[in-house]
Description:
This is Polysaccharide deacetylase. GO terms for molecular function: hydrolase activity, acting on carbon-nitrogen (but not peptide) bonds. By secondary structure, this protein is of the alpha/beta class. It has one domain (about 45-230): Alpha-Beta Barrel (TIM Barrel), CATH 3.20.20. About 50% of the residues lie in helices and about 15% in strands. The chain has ten helices and eight strands. The strands form two sheets. Strands 1, 2, 3, 6, 7 and 8 form a six-stranded parallel sheet that branches. Strand 6 (about 170), helix 9 (about 180-195) and strand 7 form a beta-alpha-beta unit. Helix 3 packs parallel to helix 10 and helix 9 (about 180-195) crosses helix 10. Residues about 1-5 and about 10-40 have low confidence and may be disordered.
Amino acid sequence: MLHIRKSLIITLAILLMIPLLLPQSVSAKPSASKSAGAKANAKIIYLTFDDGPTAHTGQLLDILDQYHAKATFFMLGPQMQQFQKATKRIVADGHGLGLHGATHVPGKFYKSAYSGLKEMQQANAALNKVAGVKTSLVRTPYGSKPYLKSSYRNVLLAQGGFHLWDWNVDSEDWKYKKDHQKVYNSVMKQIHNVQKRGTAPVVLMHDQEATLKVLPKLLKTLKAEGYQFEILTKKVQPVNFWNDKR
Length: 246
């Protein structure tokens, strides 16, 4: 009887020691899963700037560098030719590249199904001449609605091979150039609303002096809230007012 009791005690002691003898890598699985989940739930945001480059692009890029933020620039052909140094720096700094046409005049850009395509091709040629690169991302003047009709889109996207981008957060920084707090409040409210819907915010801003006044505060807040600044590429599904995924 005593022998049986000793055997039971020894067996119990061995069972209690088994977890301590297992490799530590087994207990690391939960933390690995947690890490993967955190990456999947990352808060991505896309900052975009229209109408440049300008005399203020250098300062804009300095601010983005300060906060380790990347953005996408939808640029005009003549502006790239005029501000070649800024254009080259946008490329060298690894920002996203987009085209905004040549004239920025609705009556000219949307004159026909092929006028917009021609302007985007001219802008791409300017980008290639100045910086030695091209892009397939486009944003039409004043957004794609209501001017860019279905037949116009087919020419621009199907024949031209471009990808159409609009936005889901409008800063209206062109409208409230003096009221920086209004711009900040509006942008943050829109970003939070878009994020709640499970969509990545695509923020429309402009390459202008007034935007330099509000940008640092926006970047500081967004970084504090855990947003990651990424650039638009042809691999990202387009966000546009027509829900055209081409």
